[in-house]
Here is the input.
Amino acid sequence: MDNNQAPYGRVNTVYDEAGQSGQLPVTPMSKDTKIEILKVSGILGISILLFHFLSEWTGGMVVKLVNSGAVPYTYTIQQVIQILYTLLTILVPFAIGAFFVKKVQKRDKLLPLEKPKSGILFVEALGIGLMAIVIANAVTASFVSFSESHGVTFDSYKPESPTSVYQFLWILLSNAIVPAIVEEFALRGVLLQSLRKYGDAFAVLASAILFGIMHGNMTQAPFAFILGAVLAILVIMTGSLWTSMAIHLINNTYSVFMNALLDRGDDLMTSMVMVSLNTLALIYGAIALVYLFGLHRGKEGLKARYMPGGPAKEGIRTWRWQAWLYTLISPTMLVALALLFAELFETVHFGG
Here is the structure.
């Protein structure tokens, strides 16, 4: 654990002369903390800008190479390119960002790569994550349907579906396994952990917003925002990035599997499988919530295993509005957000 951090889940309290406990008094944010947030936000903004421009540059280069015939665009090469694209555009920028954030915050390590606090807690987190996937999908579908009924349409992303076991395994690697690891490293790893020092609620919401808009289209953004927030909470709760990687992998694998099933043309079978899996996920999630909050123990069990707070003192956690302010006024973060939102709203069309 870093020397400048309090243990996860520990709440700092003060006691008056009568022995009554209460929160630490709110003190003004120091100039050094303000400068630190600006630096951290600036570094994260640069990472996001690198992600944006590398995505544009890499996409253009692939098109040129394929059109020129310099690269034989076989199925295998296509999937290898997809993997390299993910590594170059996400892993590299955020690995650079992690290096400099550690320097600014004087941390020995940034990512919580330890195993979850307990096996039971991990199993509960998986159930909550699967429930969140179902709910996020339902909310997103409702949002898209409502928008279309009012004349607002969105460009949609249709992932490629496999036609053989060989292709399924390649897509599983390129579209499920690699993105799950790399995106969690970037979002619930570098972004979330960099911002947690300034408040858990702030860090969860900020990382979820960025996860949503970085998808670049409105048919995925609401889902990514909801799931991103839940994944961030579960990483904090279990103290491990492996939790979100596992849930993200399950979601991606489910998506690949369902796309393959849809392309078979058997709508009845697809609907039955989808309803069955979603129902099981909701049941699993409900049971996980009951056990997580100890509801099965009656009145005495009505408490969570995890007490929020994060690796910061109580006083720092009350500075949420200042954390937002000094994060948003960072020039590189402002530019990055402007580019991401512009790209996102390019996929929105009014008037049908």
User: Anything to note?
Assistant: The CA atoms of residues 212 and 221 lie 4 Å apart. The chain has eleven helices and four strands.
